[in-house]
Design a protein that fits this description.
Length: 208
């Protein structure tokens, strides 16, 4: 989904479990970029383990060399959707998600800051995966609630330090200092005022 704030379009990347339809992780960023995908993938794998496949659209956020390299190291097979090939089974999930997302467009449109947008997205995700879904009713799940259908299911679990090493060429976990900055080697990067002692992920590619 995308929302405009002060002329800047903010993008949301969410990893959705296809079986239970639970949102495993999500993030808001001012760009549809590979670092957003990697951050969300890291969070999802940390919480629920690595999947065997990642179905996505064919956008650069999912098909960049950085993302493909991380998927290879995590033994995740990329499976990008190619619209000209039909792929109706994959489009079904995207259609389902878009219908649910439309129910929250009004609230998202009335946010005025990135922090509010992030909070609203997290609220949407909580409501989404704790509410009964018609598709799960049709499939015969009782109760037809995504997070309950997912239950204790996990993918391939990596120890946190191993997972961090697997993504180390792209993502580095850091905690902000009292001034809202993170340190990488001898460099200091400003994150946001008012975020002291907050867990963050630093994305590194080349010299960026």
């Amino acid at each position: 989904m995308d929302v405009a704030l002060d002329g800047v379009r903010w993008w949301s990347v969410i990893i959705l479990d296809g079986y239970s339809r639970t949102m495993l992780a999500g993030a808001i960023a001012p760009a549809e970029a590979s670092w957003v995908t990697l951050m969300v993938l890291y969070t999802a794998c940390l919480r629920y383990g690595a999947p065997h496949y990642l179905i996505s659209d064919s956008g650069g956020a999912f098909t960049s060399n950085e993302v493909k390299a991380v998927l290879k190291r995590c033994a995740i097979t990329p499976n990008p959707l190619v619209s000209t090939h039909g792929d109706s089974d994959k489009n079904l999930l995207e259609t389902h998600f878009n219908l649910q997302r439309r129910l929250y467009d009004y609230q998202l449109a009335h946010t005025t800051t990135p922090t509010e947008l992030e909070q609203m997205q997290q609220r949407f995700m909580t409501i989404y995966h704790t509410t009964a879904h018609y598709g799960l009713v049709q499939a015969g799940f009782t109760p037809p609630i995504p997070i309950r259908v997912l239950g204790d299911a996990k993918g391939r679990l990596y120890p946190p330090d191993e997972l961090a090493r697997t993504l180390s060429q792209a993502l580095l976990p850091r905690t902000t200092n009292p001034y809202g900055c993170v340190t990488l080697h001898s460099d200091h990067f400003y994150v946001e005022a008012g975020l002291p002692k907050t867990q963050t992920l630093v994305w590194v590619y080349g010299e960026q």
